[in-house]
# Entry
Amino acid sequence: MAEVVRNIQVKLNIPESQHSAVDQTFEEFRQAAQHVADHGWSDDPDHLVKAKNKLHKATYTDVREQTNLQASLVQSARNLAADALSNCHDLLEDDTNTSKPEFRGTVIVYNGRTITYNDDHVTLSTVEGRVKAEYVFPYHDEGTPFEEYWNEDKWEKREATLHKRNGEYYLHVAVENDVDPVSTDEKTENGVVLGVDLNVDGYLAVTSTGAFLGNADELNHKRDEYERCRGHLQQTGTRSAHLTIQSLGGRFAEWSRHRLHDVSNGVVREAVENECTHIAFERLTWIWTRISNASKFQQWAFREIQRQVEYKAEAHGIEVDTVAPQYTSQRCSHGECGFTHEDNRDGDEFECLKCGKELHADYNAARNVAWRLVQNWLKSGSGRATSQLALKSGTVNANGDFNASAV
Ligand SMILES: [Zn+2]
# Structure
């Protein structure tokens, strides 16, 4: 079972007499989160505190004393700050410029203990006790996912965030559903695996179905450009140079995330179109032994692609798995051949010294990544007798028998 989460927005009608209680809660929640962020922050990633239990111990009592928030809201504020600190930590580790989280907006995070959903209203915890707020249903909002999720019992309402915009209150509700479009039994019998090969140059990702996705060279080039600019600006050392570095860093991070989303979308699209039950990647720790000179940025990019693919695949009930990639680049993936030799590969070219098959080297590697997962299933005796690798225009089972797909 995979849990899929969607976010929907509903406008709330909070009685005017209660506005001050809610607004005061926004302010105290903000202060609570800021207090935690102030405590945990350091511009040295080794000293930055992001662990929730540590932050809790260090700040809980103070925040309880300084605010009228109930315990669960104090914890929510701490979690919000912990997530922000964790993001900062990753950016600092990646040598990307960032600064201490500043909580300025109006937001309160509600969970099971601080919000109660009813048919036509919610009750929300505030610094002056519970407040009742009726839903203002967006009946006119055609095309929003609202109708699809709000009244459907299979979507369970979970955490929510309350926001205030232009004097109006909005609740963003996370709804959760367990999807399992392919039954577990069926999956065990008929696993279809999409293999993915990730690269630090050339195509970022190549699938066993022959999709060539993303441009690693472009990403590296932009990164170098950004580093050069940052270097020049740092030398000038002025405040405006510092601000420029920050905005450059932000834009670069956004740009690269977009590129990676294109890649992860492409991978998931391939898996869906080929009716795959699984997507297989090489285990990252193994990749770094193979590519020993990968930069922190490239490591981040690979992690990010896998992370994005995982949550996007989840929505389709597709599982993501990793395999140890021994010889994925040296093994011939053609039919039953499987001949493995380091001279099979020469740069982008793969030519099997035994059977003579010529393939793009990354495509060959991707097929081997898928093959490896199917092998793992066979070895573990998980009984996936008809497990298949999704390949260009068809699938191949673990024995190498090819089934042309009905196109
Ligand atoms: Zn061969």
